[in-house]
Amino acid sequence: MYLRLFAVTTEAEISAHIGTTVALPCRVDKQQCGQLHSLKWYKDSNRVYVLSHAGQGRAEGDATER
Predict the structure, then answer these.
(1) What is the pLDDT of residues 8-62, one digit of tens each?
(2) Is the pTM of this model over 0.70?
(3) Could you tell me the maximum CA-CA distance found in the chain, to the nearest angstrom?
(4) Domain edges within the chain
(5) CA distances in angstroms from 19 to 15, 29, 35, 66, listed in the order given
(6) Rounded distance, CA 47 to CA 61, Å?
(7) How far is CA 12 from CA 6, 16, 41, 46, in A?
(8) CA-CA distance, 15 to 51, in Å (whole number)?
(9) Which InterPro entries match (predicted)?
């Protein structure tokens, strides 16, 4: 079994076997967006992970059980 992820803003597709680790690229244009405060990942309308500007990350919601 594998998980397939699609990036909303690019043509990228990432596939991996469930239970393995993957790197999800996230390019931030600081010229357009300014300083980075945090990145938030969502599954549907539920926030599942937050990464702060200090590099501190935490799972949220259903993802905390993983």
Answers:
(1) 555 567 778 888 887 777 777 778 777 777 888 887 888 888 888 788 888 887 7
(2) no
(3) 40
(4) 2-65
(5) 12, 31, 33, 10
(6) 7
(7) 6, 13, 16, 22
(8) 22
(9) Ig-like_fold
